[in-house]
Amino acid sequence: xxxxxxxxxxxxxxxxxxxxxxxxxxxxxxxxxxxxxxxxxxxxxxxxxxxxxxxxxxxxxxxxxxxxxxxxxxxxxxxxxxxxxxxxxxxxxxxxxxxxxxxxxxxxxxxxxxxxxxxxxxxxxxxxxxxxxxxxxxxxxxxxxxxxxxxxxxxxxxxxxxxxxxxxxxxxxxxxxxxxxxxxxxxxxxxxxxxxxxxxxxxxxxxxxxxxxxxxxxxxxxxxxxxxxxxxxxxxxxxxxxxxxxxxxxxxxx
Length: 254
Prior knowledge:
Elements: E1 4-8, H1 12-25, E2 30-35, H2 38-45, E3 53-57, E4 59-60, E5 63-64, H3 68-71, E6 78-82, H4 88-91, E7 96-101, H5 106-121, H6 124-141, E8 145-150, E9 153-158, E10 162-168, E11 171-176, E12 181-184, H7 188-194, E13 200-202, E14 207-210, E15 214-220, E16 224-229, E17 237-239, H8 244-252
Parallel strand pairs: 1-2, 1-3, 3-6, 6-7
Antiparallel strand pairs: 4-5, 8-9, 10-11, 10-14, 11-12, 13-14, 15-16, 16-17
């Protein structure tokens, strides 16, 4: 049975109702977060998310949720929840396993969860072994050194010396722990896939930070976090409310 879920829903009443039904069916279920917009969802799913299923409304405050999949890949099963049935075909073009029309009842949700259980139970053990191997391989093959241009030279920069990566106006730079800055010919999306996820974290759209560079953390407006690094940054590094639990797990992981 499912243990962890993510809800993408901009109507508070709908999110509360879904959470209540989930708790009735699966009392020990954990709702990791409720995301209310396309922008918030893209930022949240840009990092690794460990969830069993995502319940996703199609109409969000800043656009339809299919835009999310144009920016990030979500490997987690999706159950769409919507008041409109004309999007069913589009929904199954992404990683969707079911489509619930609002207002749906508890038995409709139960059927969707049963379907998810059937689809995943036979492959779960094999899948976990495969994921474990992939994570180990990724850790072993993660980027250790990056070649950067400096004046008329190309020099190697060890990842252990990097404080953060920053993007602005489609230009990416890295800054080392001793304050040196170099241009990088990779996007933050590419770097996120190549860097050791135990040592680097995609804080938001502008920054990937190194664990070694984190100095302290301040509670910011709206339950967000503001990070202070050991060196100066081009702008304040803010962790969104939705990403706070994940960031804390990453920072406390030993």
